[in-house]
Amino acid sequence: xxxxRLFAVFAGIAAILLGASSRSDSRSSAxxxxxxxxxxxxxRYEFVPSTIEVLQGERVRIVVTSGDGFHGFxxxxxxxxxxxxxxDTVTIEFTPDVAGEFPIxxxxxxxxxxxxxxxxxxxxxxxxxQS
Length: 131
Ligand SMILES: [Cu+2]
Hints:
Layout: H1 2-32, E1 36-43, E2 46-48, E3 51-55, E4 60-66, E5 71-75, E6 80-84, E7 89-94, E8 100-105, E9 118-124
């Protein structure tokens, strides 16, 4: 009687410990997942590269450097809008949760060709959950 009760308590503790460790494992792997880093140069009147391809749900870190004057980097769909001062490098992080093709726009007037300063973000749908 006493022995079986002791065993039940021990089994209960073991189950709690196992459950806690597997939970913290999955949490820490999600936290340590490194974002995809993409370097972009903003210059009159283009983004280089002009097309950025990422995966839906993947954390993205875009590092934008101004190649000349004052520019901006905006992706309306994902609430991204950053000033890129002359000679500066600005880091932008976001997670595109919607698949599709979205315009990247210069959000600061930078000269005659400003209206044509556009890039494209392609977010590819995540078809199968990868483990
Ligand atoms: Cu501009």
